[in-house]
Amino acid sequence: QVQLQQSGPGLVKPSQTLSLTCAISGDSVSSDSTAWNWIRQSPSRGLEWLGRTYYRSKWYNDYAVSVKSRITINADASKNQFSLQLNSVTPEDTAVYFCVRGYALGIWGQGTMITVSS
Amino acid sequence: DIVMTQSPDSLAVSLGERATINCKSSQSVLYSSNNKNSLAWYQQKPGQPPKLLIYWTSTRESGVPDRFSGSGSGTDFTLTISSLQAEDVAVYYCQQYYSTPLTFGGGTKVEIK
Q1: DSSP state at residue A33
Q2: Residue A55 and residue A82: Cα distance in Å, rounded?
Q3: Which residues of A touch B56 (CB under 8 A)?
Q4: Contact (CB, 8 A) for B13 and B84
Q5: Do the Cβ atoms of B37 and B56 come closer than 8 Å?
Q6: Are B54 and B101 in contact (CB under 8 A)?
Q7: Measured between beta carbons, which residues in chain A are less than 8 angstroms from residue B46?
Q8: Strands A112-116, A11-12: parallel, antiparallel or unpaired by DSSP?
Q9: Within an 8 Å CB–CB cutoff, is residue B55 touching chain A?
Q10: 8 Å CB contact between B43 and B94
């Protein structure tokens, strides 16, 4: 079955870059029938979609306006994974971050609690 | 952005009774290619990621008990738990996947009365 395994540090200092990776098993990041998303959850903001990458003969990305100037989502087909980079983080970026497959979001990573603090 | 509004915020139901959760989208989420509404429901228990229960408004995900059902049209949608079980205590979310940004409702907490 399809599984997503997240990795990355749980503590990030303000103004620095948050980096997470999501390793895929049981599917391909280059699949032309799905998309690969990053979503975060916090008590103040609820479930918030950050962006996605998907492959349709070439790679596409969509990003939430709220983070568009700070976010990059990349896919690495050779490692069958995708990643999130969020620059210039502030304490408001403290949340649980999930990598997720789909449009209806059927497969979720385990979640990573990210704390932004000095 | 499409705003998803859920009601109620919380709900206490006796075991074996029906639970009904409502979700309203700020605009249509009808996907013209299949004439289905791009509306999904999730269940989230503490310390776990959300779990997909229903997509395309009324299609149950594999393995989801048939006491969970979804309905709706236009901009109004409903998740029904026909006979509440103890393991159904959770927070439930609706989500539209018609357009980006994907957006979620604020959640409904279901408890046992």
Answers
A1: S
A2: 12
A3: 104
A4: yes
A5: yes
A6: no
A7: none
A8: parallel
A9: yes
A10: no
Determine the pLDDT at residue B8: 97
The per-residue pLDDT for range B92-105, each reduced to its tens digit, is 999 999 999 999 99
Confidence of residue B80 (pLDDT cuts 50, 70, 90): very high
Give strand pairing partners of B22: B7, B78
Radius of gyration from C-alpha coordinates of chain A: 13
Beta bridge partners of A20: A84
Other beta carbons less than 10 A from residue B111's beta carbon:
13
Contact A104 B49 (CB under 8 A): no
Comparing CB atoms, the residue among B40, B50, B93 nearest residue A108 is B50
Q: Would you state the pLDDT for residue A43?
A: 96
Contact call for B49 and A103, based on CB within 8 A = no
Average the pLDDT over B57-68 and give the result: 98
